[in-house]
Write a structure and sequence with these properties.
By secondary structure, the protein is α+β, with helices and mostly antiparallel strands. The strands form three sheets. It has a six-stranded antiparallel sheet with strand order 3-2-1-4-5-6. A six-stranded mixed sheet has the order 14-13-12-7-16-15, with helices on both faces. The longest helix has 19 residues.
């Protein structure tokens, strides 16, 4: 991808200006983002937003001190004063010897693979094309729901972002991405004051990745209507089949102990557990930033560290944490990357439906309600809803249930993963299957 000369020149100029003003080092990101957001309700536009934002972010390192600043005024005379003032203010801060740019060796080995993250036709999309997309979703939902539903809220969003990153110790990089999303939220009629609702959205970095807006509207309705009549069930130990769309929430709960900040501040239940078996051997998880058209794909992270596939869990054994250079220095550990890109798995060979047939009876979890997870202890608790199934077939919707436990015990109950990674998220979670989990109900 050829560099944008205007952004590159401005970023390089800003870095030079910061060092001339007294900074030891500087890192500058110059970005341009355009987005359009449309919401429809009752066949009319409820909200329409369109914006073009230009901005510059600068990280200033001065005599062992650090600060970060952002401005949208990119005129050089104003920007020069902004940077000079930023450097001057930084020198009043407390010293932090760990705040430094990454060693340039971590910039090396950057992939040149085309990640196909930008739709070259973005600027040719007409306003009517956007409205047609969201109207199609809404119309399909209204037709499918008829008098069984209370409301449909349909939406469409797209954006394009270009960014150039320059650091005073030699890093230069550019990224470009487009995103397209459309979907609907549906509220259904039920007895009394019950108002079951659900949603379905699909997104892709290429507009052609949204194949069937009518099917999106129908899916939102089907999911909402399926929740009509949901009730509690008695407390019992029961197999859980967690839907691929939903499982990412549970993984994020488990993963909140994987970050350098939590490790350094002694608030991670996973401290010191690299090399230990912390889950069922059926769970292998990787961070893979180099997937073409991936929601979290990138050539480098926010510090410029070259992107590469990182094993997090292999057959249940913890392999790595998410460590940026700051916490890496504090912990005396090699940095990996500061946060996740695409989270992928070793997938199983059965679909959700096949798992339900094999188990016979269990609970299909299609959503979580609230909940919390303690990164210090690994304890968690969350509300769940979904469907009771028997003989592999759904028999009725259920809600107002709760599961709780400790991640270091709960994930050993995993007995399988599906062959169905969720495609509309950077966390490509498959169906997750657990044996004999206590579900608190009536």
């Amino acid at each position: 991808m050829p560099m944008n000369n205007d952004r590159l020149e401005l970023a390089q100029w800003a870095v030079k200006k910061a060092t001339e003003a007294g900074a030891s080092d500087a890192r500058v990101s110059v970005e341009r983002t355009r987005y359009v957001s449309i919401d429809y309700r009752e066949k009319r536009v409820e909200k329409l937003e369109e914006s073009v934002e230009n901005g510059l972010r600068i990280s200033i390192f001065a005599d062992g001190k650090f600060s970060g600043h952002r401005t949208s005024d990119l005129r050089k005379d104003a920007l020069g004063r902004f940077i000079e003032q930023g450097v001057a203010m930084t020198k009043y801060l407390e010293q932090d010897p760990y705040r430094l740019l990454p060693d340039p060796k971590y910039y090396e080995g950057r992939s040149d693979r085309d990640l196909e993250l930008s739709d070259g036709h973005y600027d040719k999309i007409a306003p009517e094309d956007r409205h047609h997309m969201v109207r199609t979703v809404e119309a399909a939902a209204l037709e499918a729901g008829g008098d069984k539903i209370i409301s449909v809220e349909a939406g469409y969003y797209d954006s394009t972002t270009q960014s150039t990153l320059v650091a005073s110790n030699g890093f230069v990089g550019e990224s470009s991405r487009t995103d397209f999303w459309t979907g609907a939220s549906v509220t259904a009629k039920d007895e009394g004051d019950k108002r079951p609702s659900d949603w379905w959205w699909e997104g892709h970095c290429n507009r052609g990745g949204i194949a069937d807006p009518e099917a999106i509207g129908r899916s939102a309705v089907e999911r909402a209507l399926a929740r009509v009549g949901a009730e509690k069930i008695p407390t019992e130990k029961i197999p859980l089949v967690i839907e691929n769309r939903t499982g990412g929430r549970l993984l994020r709960f488990m993963g909140n102990g994987l970050y350098g900040r939590a490790l350094q501040q002694k608030t991670s239940y996973l401290e010191g557990k690299v090399g230990e078996q912390i889950t069922s051997p059926l769970l292998s998880v990787y961070d893979d930033p180099l997937i073409p058209r991936g929601q979290g794909s990138r050539h480098y992270d926010g510090e410029g560290i070259a992107a590469r596939k990182l094993p997090i869990l292999e057959k249940g054994v913890l392999k790595n944490y998410y460590i940026d250079t700051y916490y890496g220095r504090k912990l005396g550990m090699e940095p990996t990357t500061g946060g996740p890109s695409n989270v992928v798995f070793d997938y199983g060979d059965k679909s959700q439906e096949q798992w339900m047939k094999e188990l016979g009876r269990g609970l299909l979890v299609t959503g979580f309600i609230g909940g919390n997870s303690n990164s210090s202890t690994g304890d968690f608790s969350t509300g769940v809803y979904g469907f009771l199934f028997e003989n592999g077939e759904i028999v009725r919707p259920v809600n107002e249930l709760n599961i709780a436990g400790n991640h270091l015990e709960f994930w050993h109950q995993l007995i399988g993963t599906g062959n169905d990674p969720y495609p509309y998220s950077s966390m490509r979670t498959p169906t997750l299957v657990f044996d004999a989990v206590t579900v608190a109900g009536a």
